[in-house]
Amino acid sequence: MDSRHKSPQDAIAFVHAVATKQGWAVNPDADFVGQLATGLSVNYNRYGYYLCPCRDGDGDRTADSDIVCPCEYARPDLDEFGHCFCALFLRPGFVEGGGQVNPIPERRPDSE
Question: What is the pLDDT of residue 23?
Fold first, then answer.
């Protein structure tokens, strides 16, 4: 198997590592996280990096640099809305405090 190949389980481990490092929580819905992890692994295997599964990228790492997971918009989204655009990452205590995931505005310039 190609050493670059990433499985959804690899992506889930990546997500948890990012959350721990950033002081964030991972969405507690395991099925939802599994779907996003599948998208992350597909993108990794296609492009060689964990491209956000909720946005369209070009497959060009430079053009996609702002949406490599965790995207550069995650922190401001967590600060303002309690979760990132994908709702993969949550502000600690968000769910316990009664927070609910709702659609949030796209911060990425020139996105549709």
Answer: 97
